[in-house]
Amino acid sequence: MKIATFTEGGRTRLGVVQREEIADVSVADARLPQDMVTLLEAGTEAQDALAAAAERAPRLALKSVRLEAPVMRPRKFLGLGLSFKSHVEEIRARGVPIPLTANQVWFNKQVTSISGPYDPIHLPRVSSQLDYEGEVAFVIGKKCRHVPADKASDVIAGFLICNDVSVRDWQLRSPTSTLGKSFDTHGPIGPWLTTADDVENPHDLRIRTWVDDELRQDGSTSDFVYSIGEMIAELTTVFTLEPGDVLTTGCPAGVGAMFDPPRFMKAGQKVRVEVDGLGAIENPVIDEPTN
């Protein structure tokens, strides 16, 4: 099932994407939650009711609605660095002074960076080092702590695409990376949440990123350094994960900073990230507005 957050007629709510249409489930069942976090908190019964409502709900043309970030305000938005072998190799080849470690390197992206799958990305007034990272993200479906790696699938609600947009000079200002990862509009996600039961193997998903019509990244989650189970086990050793938390899993080789010379994004360009089975997001780059 593909669950989207969409706006139509001045109202934002959940729908189920079916080919080129979206089932407006709130019309079929007004008791259903209207946002993703509330839906996930309500558990499997609410999700089953959403699926049932989709069978009898009126359809809207997908192109006639505005798709929003599937999870608009999660409690946590975390990213994993240095998690693809190919990306680690390209960093080593360039001799970039980023410490490589045998441990997982997680960082915060502030939730205010989240934007929709087709919303503009702002080129900051304070930097020209605007970079893309096409990634697979997963969304937590239930409150959990101390989850063994082999039980991680039990707590995943589904998967979506993320562009972990990065401002490289600000990323290197401190060891945490948070500032360079958290500019407003620098967390486009979507286009919808594909539920976990519809993703046959999350460790074998092809990821491609284009800037304009140029393919920059072409990799697969089969190149992960850590499994998704290991990611969840690591995080839940430390803190509780909650329904709606978005965890993005890192990117393959081909980021703009690793070209010689670097090839950062500019205003007027567009960046598209496509993941097999999950869809695509595409965002224009614009100068940061003055207000």
From TrEMBL:
Question: SUPFAM superfamilies this protein is in?
Answer: FAH (SSF56529)
GO term, biological process aspect, one = small molecule metabolic process
EC number annotated for this UniProt entry: 4.3.2.3
Q: What does the UniProt keyword field contain?
A: Lyase, Metal-binding
Q: Boundaries of each Fumarylacetoacetase-like C-terminal domain copy?
A: 77-285
GO MF annotations, alphabetized:
metal ion binding; ureidoglycolate lyase activity
Kindly report, in one word, the top-level EC class recorded for this enzyme: lyase
- Transmembrane stretches in the record are none
> Tell me, what's a Pfam family for it?
FAA_hydrolase
Q: Report the family membership.
A: Belongs to the FAH family.
Name under which the protein is recorded:
Ureidoglycolate lyase
Q: What is the lineage of its organism?
A: Bacteria, Pseudomonadati, Pseudomonadota, Alphaproteobacteria, Caulobacterales
